[in-house]
Amino acid sequence: MSEFTSFALLSLWNVLGVPSTKIPADGTTFASYVLPPVVCYFILAVLAVTPQTHAIRVALWPLIALLALRAVLSVNISHDKPDTIFISLMFHGVIRSIGWTLGKEPLVRHLRPGNSSPSTIMDALDLATAFRGHGWEWSRRLYIPRETRPANRLAFVFHTFPSVVAHALICGVFHRAVLSLVFIGVGNNQGSTLFDETLPFPVRYLRASIISIFTAIATYAGMRTVYDLCTILAIILLGQDHAQWPPAFDAPWRATSLSDFWGRRWHQFWRQVFLLLGGYPLSLVLGRTGIVIGAFLVSGLLHHITLFTFDSQAEMWRMYVGFGMMGVGVLAERAFQQVTGRRVGGMVGWVWTMAWLILWGNVIFEGFARAPMHDRSSLIDSVSPVRVLVEGLAMGFDDWLHAS
Protein backbone atom coordinates (compact mmCIF):
# COMPACT_ATOMS: atom_id res chain seq x y z
CA MET A 1 0.00 0.00 0.00
CA SER A 2 1.46 3.38 -1.05
CA GLU A 3 2.00 6.23 1.39
CA PHE A 4 -0.67 8.28 -0.40
CA THR A 5 -3.24 5.45 -0.08
CA SER A 6 -2.39 4.98 3.60
CA PHE A 7 -2.73 8.73 4.20
CA ALA A 8 -6.05 8.87 2.32
CA LEU A 9 -7.50 5.96 4.30
CA LEU A 10 -6.28 7.39 7.59
CA SER A 11 -7.80 10.76 6.72
CA LEU A 12 -11.12 9.12 5.79
CA TRP A 13 -11.10 7.13 9.03
CA ASN A 14 -10.49 10.32 11.02
CA VAL A 15 -13.26 12.22 9.22
CA LEU A 16 -15.71 9.38 9.85
CA GLY A 17 -14.66 9.10 13.49
CA VAL A 18 -13.74 5.42 13.27
CA PRO A 19 -12.18 4.25 16.57
CA SER A 20 -8.87 2.35 16.59
CA THR A 21 -10.65 -0.75 17.91
CA LYS A 22 -14.28 -1.76 17.53
CA ILE A 23 -16.65 -0.64 20.27
CA PRO A 24 -19.02 -3.20 21.88
CA ALA A 25 -22.63 -2.52 21.01
CA ASP A 26 -24.77 -0.74 23.61
CA GLY A 27 -27.47 1.90 23.56
CA THR A 28 -25.04 4.78 23.05
CA THR A 29 -22.99 3.20 20.27
CA PHE A 30 -26.15 1.99 18.55
CA ALA A 31 -27.57 5.52 18.51
CA SER A 32 -24.25 7.05 17.44
CA TYR A 33 -23.12 4.57 14.77
CA VAL A 34 -25.88 2.13 13.70
CA LEU A 35 -28.97 4.35 13.76
CA PRO A 36 -27.70 7.13 11.42
CA PRO A 37 -27.30 4.93 8.28
CA VAL A 38 -30.59 3.19 9.04
CA VAL A 39 -32.45 6.50 9.35
CA CYS A 40 -30.86 7.87 6.16
CA TYR A 41 -31.70 4.61 4.37
CA PHE A 42 -35.38 5.02 5.30
CA ILE A 43 -35.35 8.71 4.34
CA LEU A 44 -34.02 7.71 0.93
CA ALA A 45 -36.81 5.13 0.64
CA VAL A 46 -39.35 7.88 1.33
CA LEU A 47 -37.76 10.08 -1.32
CA ALA A 48 -37.73 7.15 -3.77
CA VAL A 49 -41.53 7.04 -3.77
CA THR A 50 -41.92 10.82 -3.81
CA PRO A 51 -42.01 12.80 -7.08
CA GLN A 52 -39.36 15.38 -8.00
CA THR A 53 -36.72 14.17 -5.51
CA HIS A 54 -34.13 12.69 -7.88
CA ALA A 55 -31.40 15.24 -7.15
CA ILE A 56 -31.84 14.87 -3.39
CA ARG A 57 -31.68 11.05 -3.70
CA VAL A 58 -28.43 11.24 -5.67
CA ALA A 59 -26.92 13.62 -3.11
CA LEU A 60 -28.02 11.50 -0.12
CA TRP A 61 -26.68 8.13 -1.32
CA PRO A 62 -22.93 8.83 -0.66
CA LEU A 63 -23.82 9.81 2.90
CA ILE A 64 -25.59 6.46 3.42
CA ALA A 65 -22.56 4.60 2.06
CA LEU A 66 -20.13 6.47 4.32
CA LEU A 67 -22.31 6.07 7.42
CA ALA A 68 -22.76 2.34 6.74
CA LEU A 69 -18.98 1.95 6.35
CA ARG A 70 -18.48 3.86 9.59
CA ALA A 71 -20.92 1.58 11.43
CA VAL A 72 -19.32 -1.61 10.11
CA LEU A 73 -15.80 -0.47 11.03
CA SER A 74 -16.70 0.94 14.44
CA VAL A 75 -19.20 -1.35 16.20
CA ASN A 76 -18.97 -4.96 17.31
CA ILE A 77 -22.62 -5.98 17.27
CA SER A 78 -22.00 -9.65 18.11
CA HIS A 79 -19.57 -9.02 20.98
CA ASP A 80 -16.26 -10.51 19.75
CA LYS A 81 -18.01 -12.84 17.28
CA PRO A 82 -18.17 -12.31 13.51
CA ASP A 83 -20.66 -9.56 12.58
CA THR A 84 -21.67 -11.45 9.44
CA ILE A 85 -25.39 -10.61 9.39
CA PHE A 86 -24.83 -6.98 10.40
CA ILE A 87 -22.22 -6.41 7.68
CA SER A 88 -24.36 -8.19 5.07
CA LEU A 89 -27.41 -6.07 5.88
CA MET A 90 -25.42 -2.84 5.73
CA PHE A 91 -23.88 -3.82 2.41
CA HIS A 92 -27.25 -4.95 1.06
CA GLY A 93 -28.86 -1.63 2.02
CA VAL A 94 -26.10 0.45 0.41
CA ILE A 95 -26.27 -1.44 -2.90
CA ARG A 96 -30.09 -1.63 -3.01
CA SER A 97 -30.36 2.10 -2.46
CA ILE A 98 -28.24 2.69 -5.57
CA GLY A 99 -31.23 1.47 -7.56
CA TRP A 100 -33.40 4.10 -5.92
CA THR A 101 -31.18 6.88 -7.30
CA LEU A 102 -30.95 5.74 -10.93
CA GLY A 103 -34.39 6.70 -12.23
CA LYS A 104 -35.73 10.23 -12.20
CA GLU A 105 -39.31 9.12 -11.66
CA PRO A 106 -40.51 7.77 -8.28
CA LEU A 107 -40.73 4.01 -7.81
CA VAL A 108 -44.20 2.57 -8.28
CA ARG A 109 -45.84 -0.03 -6.06
CA HIS A 110 -48.51 -2.07 -7.83
CA LEU A 111 -49.42 -4.56 -5.07
CA ARG A 112 -50.71 -3.47 -1.69
CA PRO A 113 -52.43 -5.29 1.18
CA GLY A 114 -56.18 -5.66 0.86
CA ASN A 115 -58.30 -2.69 2.01
CA SER A 116 -55.26 -0.41 2.28
CA SER A 117 -54.92 3.01 0.68
CA PRO A 118 -51.73 4.47 -0.81
CA SER A 119 -49.39 5.82 1.86
CA THR A 120 -45.93 7.29 1.30
CA ILE A 121 -44.62 6.10 4.68
CA MET A 122 -45.99 2.56 4.35
CA ASP A 123 -44.76 2.30 0.77
CA ALA A 124 -41.31 3.45 1.86
CA LEU A 125 -41.28 0.95 4.72
CA ASP A 126 -42.20 -1.86 2.34
CA LEU A 127 -39.56 -0.74 -0.17
CA ALA A 128 -36.88 -0.64 2.54
CA THR A 129 -37.64 -4.12 3.87
CA ALA A 130 -38.87 -6.09 0.82
CA PHE A 131 -35.51 -7.35 -0.43
CA ARG A 132 -36.99 -9.14 -3.44
CA GLY A 133 -39.12 -6.14 -4.37
CA HIS A 134 -42.30 -8.19 -4.52
CA GLY A 135 -45.15 -5.90 -5.52
CA TRP A 136 -42.98 -3.18 -7.08
CA GLU A 137 -42.77 -2.12 -10.71
CA TRP A 138 -38.98 -2.59 -10.88
CA SER A 139 -39.31 -6.28 -9.97
CA ARG A 140 -42.11 -7.33 -12.35
CA ARG A 141 -39.84 -9.96 -13.94
CA LEU A 142 -39.11 -11.48 -10.53
CA TYR A 143 -40.32 -15.06 -10.18
CA ILE A 144 -42.56 -15.60 -7.16
CA PRO A 145 -43.38 -19.22 -6.18
CA ARG A 146 -47.04 -20.19 -6.21
CA GLU A 147 -48.74 -19.76 -2.85
CA THR A 148 -50.28 -22.94 -1.43
CA ARG A 149 -51.17 -21.73 2.06
CA PRO A 150 -54.77 -20.71 2.87
CA ALA A 151 -55.82 -17.10 2.24
CA ASN A 152 -57.36 -16.65 5.67
CA ARG A 153 -55.00 -14.65 7.89
CA LEU A 154 -55.17 -16.88 10.97
CA ALA A 155 -55.10 -20.10 8.96
CA PHE A 156 -52.07 -18.78 7.05
CA VAL A 157 -50.17 -18.28 10.32
CA PHE A 158 -51.14 -21.70 11.69
CA HIS A 159 -50.08 -23.28 8.40
CA THR A 160 -46.69 -21.53 8.55
CA PHE A 161 -45.84 -22.39 12.16
CA PRO A 162 -45.28 -26.15 11.59
CA SER A 163 -42.86 -25.18 8.81
CA VAL A 164 -40.80 -23.19 11.33
CA VAL A 165 -40.57 -26.17 13.68
CA ALA A 166 -39.89 -28.74 10.96
CA HIS A 167 -37.20 -26.72 9.19
CA ALA A 168 -35.51 -25.77 12.46
CA LEU A 169 -35.26 -29.47 13.29
CA ILE A 170 -33.98 -30.33 9.80
CA CYS A 171 -31.40 -27.57 10.00
CA GLY A 172 -30.20 -28.76 13.40
CA VAL A 173 -29.96 -32.42 12.38
CA PHE A 174 -28.01 -31.84 9.18
CA HIS A 175 -25.80 -29.17 10.71
CA ARG A 176 -24.88 -31.56 13.51
CA ALA A 177 -24.10 -34.23 10.90
CA VAL A 178 -21.76 -31.78 9.14
CA LEU A 179 -20.02 -30.91 12.42
CA SER A 180 -19.55 -34.62 13.09
CA LEU A 181 -17.89 -35.28 9.73
CA VAL A 182 -15.63 -32.28 9.03
CA PHE A 183 -12.05 -32.22 10.28
CA ILE A 184 -11.13 -29.38 12.64
CA GLY A 185 -7.69 -27.75 12.69
CA VAL A 186 -7.07 -26.88 9.03
CA GLY A 187 -5.64 -23.63 7.66
CA ASN A 188 -4.52 -20.43 9.34
CA ASN A 189 -7.67 -20.01 11.41
CA GLN A 190 -7.91 -23.62 12.57
CA GLY A 191 -10.88 -24.22 10.32
CA SER A 192 -12.15 -27.51 8.97
CA THR A 193 -12.18 -29.42 5.70
CA LEU A 194 -14.57 -31.66 3.78
CA PHE A 195 -11.79 -33.89 2.49
CA ASP A 196 -10.39 -36.85 4.43
CA GLU A 197 -6.86 -37.36 3.09
CA THR A 198 -6.68 -40.89 4.55
CA LEU A 199 -9.31 -42.15 2.08
CA PRO A 200 -8.78 -43.08 -1.58
CA PHE A 201 -9.69 -40.22 -3.92
CA PRO A 202 -13.09 -41.59 -5.15
CA VAL A 203 -14.26 -42.32 -1.59
CA ARG A 204 -12.77 -39.06 -0.32
CA TYR A 205 -14.66 -37.07 -2.96
CA LEU A 206 -17.89 -38.98 -2.33
CA ARG A 207 -17.61 -38.23 1.38
CA ALA A 208 -16.95 -34.53 0.70
CA SER A 209 -19.94 -34.41 -1.67
CA ILE A 210 -22.20 -35.87 0.99
CA ILE A 211 -21.04 -33.23 3.48
CA SER A 212 -21.73 -30.55 0.85
CA ILE A 213 -25.25 -31.90 0.33
CA PHE A 214 -25.83 -31.91 4.09
CA THR A 215 -24.55 -28.31 4.27
CA ALA A 216 -26.87 -27.24 1.46
CA ILE A 217 -29.85 -28.85 3.19
CA ALA A 218 -28.95 -27.19 6.50
CA THR A 219 -28.55 -23.82 4.74
CA TYR A 220 -31.90 -24.15 2.98
CA ALA A 221 -33.70 -25.28 6.15
CA GLY A 222 -32.09 -22.52 8.22
CA MET A 223 -33.18 -19.83 5.78
CA ARG A 224 -36.69 -21.28 5.62
CA THR A 225 -36.87 -21.23 9.42
CA VAL A 226 -35.86 -17.58 9.68
CA TYR A 227 -38.09 -16.46 6.79
CA ASP A 228 -41.17 -18.32 8.03
CA LEU A 229 -40.64 -17.02 11.56
CA CYS A 230 -40.35 -13.45 10.23
CA THR A 231 -43.54 -14.08 8.24
CA ILE A 232 -45.47 -15.01 11.37
CA LEU A 233 -44.12 -12.08 13.40
CA ALA A 234 -44.80 -9.57 10.62
CA ILE A 235 -48.41 -10.72 10.21
CA ILE A 236 -49.20 -10.97 13.95
CA LEU A 237 -47.21 -8.05 15.38
CA LEU A 238 -47.02 -5.62 12.45
CA GLY A 239 -50.40 -6.40 10.94
CA GLN A 240 -48.98 -7.06 7.48
CA ASP A 241 -50.93 -8.88 4.80
CA HIS A 242 -49.95 -12.47 4.07
CA ALA A 243 -49.59 -11.53 0.37
CA GLN A 244 -46.49 -9.54 1.34
CA TRP A 245 -44.79 -12.80 2.41
CA PRO A 246 -44.90 -15.21 -0.55
CA PRO A 247 -42.77 -18.39 -0.40
CA ALA A 248 -39.02 -17.77 -0.51
CA PHE A 249 -38.12 -21.06 -2.22
CA ASP A 250 -39.76 -23.31 -4.79
CA ALA A 251 -38.55 -26.86 -4.05
CA PRO A 252 -34.95 -26.33 -5.29
CA TRP A 253 -34.30 -30.09 -5.29
CA ARG A 254 -36.72 -30.37 -8.23
CA ALA A 255 -34.71 -28.06 -10.49
CA THR A 256 -34.13 -29.54 -13.96
CA SER A 257 -31.60 -26.94 -15.08
CA LEU A 258 -29.18 -24.49 -13.51
CA SER A 259 -31.28 -21.63 -14.91
CA ASP A 260 -34.31 -23.12 -13.20
CA PHE A 261 -32.42 -23.56 -9.93
CA TRP A 262 -30.80 -20.12 -9.68
CA GLY A 263 -33.48 -18.09 -11.47
CA ARG A 264 -36.62 -19.59 -9.96
CA ARG A 265 -36.27 -22.21 -7.26
CA TRP A 266 -33.52 -20.77 -5.02
CA HIS A 267 -34.29 -17.62 -3.04
CA GLN A 268 -34.09 -14.28 -4.86
CA PHE A 269 -33.32 -11.99 -1.90
CA TRP A 270 -30.02 -10.75 -3.37
CA ARG A 271 -31.12 -10.68 -7.01
CA GLN A 272 -31.26 -6.89 -7.29
CA VAL A 273 -27.86 -6.47 -5.62
CA PHE A 274 -26.24 -8.98 -7.99
CA LEU A 275 -27.72 -7.21 -11.01
CA LEU A 276 -26.96 -3.65 -9.87
CA LEU A 277 -23.38 -4.36 -8.88
CA GLY A 278 -22.38 -6.89 -11.54
CA GLY A 279 -25.02 -7.96 -14.04
CA TYR A 280 -26.05 -4.60 -15.48
CA PRO A 281 -22.55 -3.03 -15.63
CA LEU A 282 -21.01 -6.07 -17.33
CA SER A 283 -23.95 -6.31 -19.75
CA LEU A 284 -22.79 -2.99 -21.24
CA VAL A 285 -19.71 -4.86 -22.50
CA LEU A 286 -20.87 -8.47 -22.95
CA GLY A 287 -24.62 -8.16 -23.44
CA ARG A 288 -26.80 -10.95 -21.97
CA THR A 289 -23.68 -13.00 -21.24
CA GLY A 290 -22.43 -10.15 -19.07
CA ILE A 291 -25.61 -10.19 -16.99
CA VAL A 292 -25.05 -13.84 -16.06
CA ILE A 293 -21.29 -13.65 -15.47
CA GLY A 294 -21.51 -10.32 -13.62
CA ALA A 295 -24.27 -11.51 -11.30
CA PHE A 296 -22.44 -14.70 -10.32
CA LEU A 297 -19.10 -12.93 -9.84
CA VAL A 298 -20.77 -10.46 -7.47
CA SER A 299 -22.34 -13.42 -5.68
CA GLY A 300 -18.84 -14.83 -5.24
CA LEU A 301 -17.62 -11.47 -3.94
CA LEU A 302 -20.42 -11.16 -1.37
CA HIS A 303 -19.93 -14.72 -0.16
CA HIS A 304 -16.22 -14.01 0.22
CA ILE A 305 -17.03 -10.92 2.30
CA THR A 306 -19.06 -13.25 4.52
CA LEU A 307 -16.04 -15.56 4.89
CA PHE A 308 -13.81 -12.56 5.56
CA THR A 309 -15.79 -11.76 8.71
CA PHE A 310 -14.72 -15.19 10.04
CA ASP A 311 -11.18 -15.32 8.64
CA SER A 312 -9.34 -12.30 7.21
CA GLN A 313 -7.06 -14.69 5.29
CA ALA A 314 -9.88 -16.66 3.62
CA GLU A 315 -9.04 -17.74 0.06
CA MET A 316 -11.01 -15.55 -2.33
CA TRP A 317 -10.59 -17.87 -5.32
CA ARG A 318 -12.90 -20.52 -3.85
CA MET A 319 -15.95 -18.25 -3.96
CA TYR A 320 -15.09 -16.72 -7.33
CA VAL A 321 -14.41 -20.07 -8.97
CA GLY A 322 -17.37 -21.83 -7.35
CA PHE A 323 -20.00 -19.21 -8.17
CA GLY A 324 -18.32 -18.20 -11.42
CA MET A 325 -18.65 -21.76 -12.70
CA MET A 326 -22.37 -21.65 -11.87
CA GLY A 327 -22.58 -18.82 -14.38
CA VAL A 328 -20.58 -20.86 -16.91
CA GLY A 329 -23.07 -23.70 -16.45
CA VAL A 330 -26.02 -21.38 -17.13
CA LEU A 331 -24.33 -20.12 -20.30
CA ALA A 332 -23.63 -23.72 -21.37
CA GLU A 333 -27.37 -24.42 -21.11
CA ARG A 334 -28.10 -21.42 -23.34
CA ALA A 335 -25.55 -22.64 -25.88
CA PHE A 336 -27.17 -26.10 -25.81
CA GLN A 337 -30.56 -24.56 -26.52
CA GLN A 338 -29.19 -22.48 -29.39
CA VAL A 339 -27.53 -25.52 -30.99
CA THR A 340 -30.28 -28.09 -30.47
CA GLY A 341 -33.39 -25.92 -30.22
CA ARG A 342 -34.31 -27.72 -26.97
CA ARG A 343 -34.16 -26.48 -23.38
CA VAL A 344 -32.26 -28.41 -20.74
CA GLY A 345 -34.84 -30.29 -18.69
CA GLY A 346 -36.37 -33.60 -17.70
CA MET A 347 -34.53 -36.34 -15.82
CA VAL A 348 -31.31 -35.77 -17.76
CA GLY A 349 -31.53 -32.08 -16.91
CA TRP A 350 -32.03 -32.91 -13.23
CA VAL A 351 -28.96 -35.17 -13.18
CA TRP A 352 -26.89 -32.50 -14.96
CA THR A 353 -28.06 -29.80 -12.53
CA MET A 354 -27.37 -31.77 -9.37
CA ALA A 355 -23.98 -32.96 -10.65
CA TRP A 356 -22.86 -29.41 -11.51
CA LEU A 357 -24.14 -28.04 -8.20
CA ILE A 358 -22.28 -30.71 -6.24
CA LEU A 359 -19.07 -30.40 -8.31
CA TRP A 360 -18.66 -26.69 -7.73
CA GLY A 361 -20.56 -26.71 -4.44
CA ASN A 362 -17.65 -28.70 -3.03
CA VAL A 363 -15.34 -25.79 -3.87
CA ILE A 364 -17.70 -23.29 -2.23
CA PHE A 365 -18.40 -25.33 0.90
CA GLU A 366 -14.72 -26.15 1.34
CA GLY A 367 -14.19 -22.38 1.52
CA PHE A 368 -16.91 -22.15 4.15
CA ALA A 369 -15.33 -24.97 6.13
CA ARG A 370 -11.84 -23.45 6.13
CA ALA A 371 -13.11 -20.03 7.31
CA PRO A 372 -14.36 -21.73 9.68
CA MET A 373 -18.13 -21.30 9.34
CA HIS A 374 -19.15 -24.89 10.05
CA ASP A 375 -17.97 -24.84 13.64
CA ARG A 376 -21.03 -23.03 15.01
CA SER A 377 -23.59 -24.91 17.07
CA SER A 378 -27.25 -23.96 17.26
CA LEU A 379 -29.93 -24.56 19.88
CA ILE A 380 -31.43 -27.53 18.01
CA ASP A 381 -28.24 -29.42 17.16
CA SER A 382 -26.94 -28.94 20.71
CA VAL A 383 -29.92 -30.74 22.29
CA SER A 384 -28.50 -33.92 23.80
CA PRO A 385 -30.84 -36.54 22.20
CA VAL A 386 -30.44 -34.99 18.75
CA ARG A 387 -26.70 -34.61 19.14
CA VAL A 388 -26.09 -38.15 20.38
CA LEU A 389 -28.28 -39.75 17.72
CA VAL A 390 -26.92 -37.75 14.77
CA GLU A 391 -23.30 -38.01 15.87
CA GLY A 392 -23.70 -41.77 16.32
CA LEU A 393 -25.12 -42.21 12.81
CA ALA A 394 -22.52 -39.89 11.24
CA MET A 395 -19.57 -41.57 12.93
CA GLY A 396 -20.96 -45.01 12.08
CA PHE A 397 -21.16 -43.99 8.43
CA ASP A 398 -17.61 -42.61 8.59
CA ASP A 399 -16.30 -45.84 10.14
CA TRP A 400 -18.00 -47.81 7.35
CA LEU A 401 -16.30 -45.69 4.71
CA HIS A 402 -12.88 -46.24 6.27
CA ALA A 403 -13.48 -49.97 6.62
CA SER A 404 -14.63 -50.37 2.98
Outline:
By secondary structure, the protein is an all-alpha fold. It is 68% helix and 3% strand. The strands form 2 sheets. It has a two-stranded parallel sheet with strand order 1-2.
Describe it for me?
Helices cover 68% and strands 3% of the residues. With 404 residues, the chain is mostly helical. Helix 6 packs across helix 14 and helix 7 packs across helix 12. The radius of gyration is 23 Å and the shape is globular. The termini are far apart.
* Content-based structural category: mainly alpha
Helix content: 55-70%
Count of DSSP E strands?
4
The end-to-end span amounts to 53 Å
Strand order of the largest sheet: 1-2
Strand content bin: under 5%
Principal-axis shape equals globular
Largest sheet report: 2 strands, parallel
> Segments where pLDDT lies below 50 for 5+ residues?
none
Give the helix tally.
14
Throw out a few tags for this protein:
404 residues; mainly alpha; two-stranded parallel ribbon; two-stranded antiparallel sheet; 4 strands; 68% helix
Layout of secondary structure:
Blueprint: H1 3-16, E1 23-24, H2 27-48, H3 54-74, E2 75-76, H4 84-102, H5 120-129, H6 153-181, E3 183-186, E4 191-193, H7 201-237, H8 258-265, H9 271-286, H10 288-310, H11 316-340, H12 346-370, H13 379-382, H14 384-403
Parallel strand pairs: 1-2
Antiparallel strand pairs: 3-4
